[in-house]
């Protein structure tokens, strides 16, 4: 049976988060619970990543040590996660303008 | 568009000699040159005689450290004076960096100016390497490795004294496998080879063919931790996913990303690929090609920098594609 679209993201995200910890020089574990929640444990932090409920203007809920952040995309989720666990992280202040899907 | 060429290379590697020779060529008529010298009193600009309708502007201090803002201001000022007719109507910029400069912040400054709609476009990066001392310099000076890593064209100078040794060729090719290697004696190089236009759709297509010719996920790691890798994706990527990808690269690679170039199969317009180009956290607006330059219609990205991870980028693209697909279904 082919992987459904929801499964594709559910499988891709823990692998991305795991690799992100490596990239950021943070040791920790990444575990996906049966509910779909992704749990990240580092030496100093405990993080839960959940999909947002339907009808809200964001897609992800990132809770770091009880502190709630929201994100509208996987990119935003990574930013929220790193802000929560990496005190030295300074996200880019430049936002990339959306690529116009119509060629100029 | 006014193309900007950045001429870099380590101290004594022959940048000024090369520039002085090139400016005598009619090919480089109407060129505005910005020379950066380290120290309060510069002499390099006295060694360069600008040809008719060209001129030289001197900046002192190290471009990459203290006066990056000054470089942007200088470019903006020269553009304003060009528009007012108080300087010759130049058609290109050449920026000669000091030999000690890290090229990335300078490229960043050029691209920031371009992003402001100034009409400038980073055209190419030319790096000089001394045939006699280059190998030792690359072993000793991390800055010289960065200068080689970002180049589109490498000019091996002083080849009248020493030819390009197999060791030096091997070293520069290991650092930067995409750059064309050109030998020069007394700065004598065909300007057309160095300053071939790289702005515009056709040129962008040519450049990207060269840049992305290296294999998929090919990794070069160096003792100085500069990496170069290529990513190939056969499936088209949505425009939104590409935007989110660039944003994530800016967030998590930041100043570590010396250069990014790529040709992208955008899902919404399969017949017209987009060329993307970035330095650190600054990205050019994509250049849309009229058609694919060859039979290979896959997305190819080349990244050069420090602290990068090819696995992370691959996983990021996979997750972004999955997220966009999920959203599309939900709409």
Walk me through this protein's architecture:
- The complex is a heterodimer of chains A (104) and B (331).
- Chain A is of the alpha+beta class and 104 residues long.
- Chain A has a domain at 28-88.
- Helix content of chain A is 30%, strand content 25%.
- Chain A has a 5-stranded antiparallel sheet with strand order 1-2-3-4-5, with helices on one face.
- In chain A, 29% of the residues are buried.
- The model of chain A has no long low-confidence stretch (mean pLDDT 89).
- In chain B, strands 3-2-4-1-5-6-7 form a 7-stranded parallel sheet, sandwiched between helices.
- The longest helix of chain B has 21 residues, at 310-330.
- The chains are: A alpha+beta (104), B alpha/beta (331).
- The interface between A and B is large, with 34 and 38 residues.
Q: Topology, pairings included?
A:
The complex is a heterodimer of chains A (104) and B (331).
Chain A: H1 5-23, E1 28-32, E2 38-42, E3 46-51, E4 60-64, E5 67-71, H2 74-85
Antiparallel strand pairs in A: 1-2, 2-3, 3-4, 4-5
Chain B: E1 2-9, H1 15-22, E2 31-37, H2 44-47, E3 55-60, H3 68-84, E4 92-96, H4 103-115, E5 120-130, H5 134-140, H6 142-149, E6 153-157, H7 166-175, E7 180-183, H8 191-194, H9 201-211, E8 219-220, E9 226-233, H10 239-252, E10 257-264, E11 274-279, E12 282-283, E13 287-288, E14 299-306, H11 310-330
Parallel strand pairs in B: 1-4, 1-5, 2-3, 2-4, 5-6, 6-7
Antiparallel strand pairs in B: 8-9, 9-14, 10-11, 10-14, 11-12, 11-13
């Amino acid at each position: 049976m082919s992987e459904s679209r929801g499964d594709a993201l559910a499988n891709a995200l823990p692998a991305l988060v795991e690799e992100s910890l490596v990239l950021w020089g943070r040791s920790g574990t990444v575990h996906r619970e049966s509910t779909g929640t992704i749990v990240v444990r580092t030496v100093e932090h405990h993080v839960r990543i959940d999909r947002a409920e339907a009808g809200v203007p964001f897609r992800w809920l990132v809770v770091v040590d009880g502190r709630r952040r929201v994100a509208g995309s996987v990119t935003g989720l990574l930013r929220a996660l790193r802000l929560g666990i990496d005190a030295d992280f300074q996200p880019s202040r430049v936002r990339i303008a959306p690529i116009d899907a119509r060629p100029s | 568009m006014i193309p900007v060429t950045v001429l870099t290379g380590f101290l004594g590697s022959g940048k000024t000699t090369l520039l002085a020779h090139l400016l005598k060529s009619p090919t480089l008529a109407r060129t505005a040159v910005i020379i950066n010298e380290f120290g309060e009193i510069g002499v390099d600009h006295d060694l360069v005689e600008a040809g008719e309708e060209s001129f030289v502007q001197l900046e002192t201090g190290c471009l990459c450290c203290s006066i990056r803002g000054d470089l942007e201001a200088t470019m903006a000022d020269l553009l304003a004076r060009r528009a007012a007719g108080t300087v010759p109507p130049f058609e290109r910029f050449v920026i000669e960096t000091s030999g000690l400069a890290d090229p990335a912040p300078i490229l960043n400054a050029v691209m920031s100016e371009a992003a402001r709609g100034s009409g400038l476009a980073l055209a190419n990066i030319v790096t000089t390497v001394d045939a006699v001392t280059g190998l030792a310099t690359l072993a000793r000076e991390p800055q010289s490795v960065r200068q080689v890593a970002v180049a589109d064209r490498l000019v091996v100078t002083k080849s009248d004294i020493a030819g390009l040794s197999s060791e030096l060729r091997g070293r520069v090719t290991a650092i930067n496998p995409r750059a064309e290697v050109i030998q020069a004696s007394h700065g004598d190089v065909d300007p057309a080879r160095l300053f071939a236009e790289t702005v515009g759709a056709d040129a962008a297509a040519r450049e990207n063919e060269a840049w992305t010719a290296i294999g998929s996920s090919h990794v070069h790691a160096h003792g100085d931790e500069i990496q170069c890798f290529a990513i190939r994706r056969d499936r088209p990527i949505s425009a939104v996913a590409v935007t989110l990808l660039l944003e994530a690269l800016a967030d998590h690679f930041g100043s570590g990303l010396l250069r990014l170039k790529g040709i992208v199969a955008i899902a919404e317009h399969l017949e017209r690929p987009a060329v993307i180009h970035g330095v650190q956290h600054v990205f050019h607006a994509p250049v849309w090609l009229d058609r694919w330059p060859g039979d290979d219609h896959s997305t190819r990205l080349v990244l050069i920098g420090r602290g990068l991870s090819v696995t992370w980028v691959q996983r990021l693209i996979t997750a972004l594609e999955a997220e966009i697909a999920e959203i599309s279904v939900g709409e």
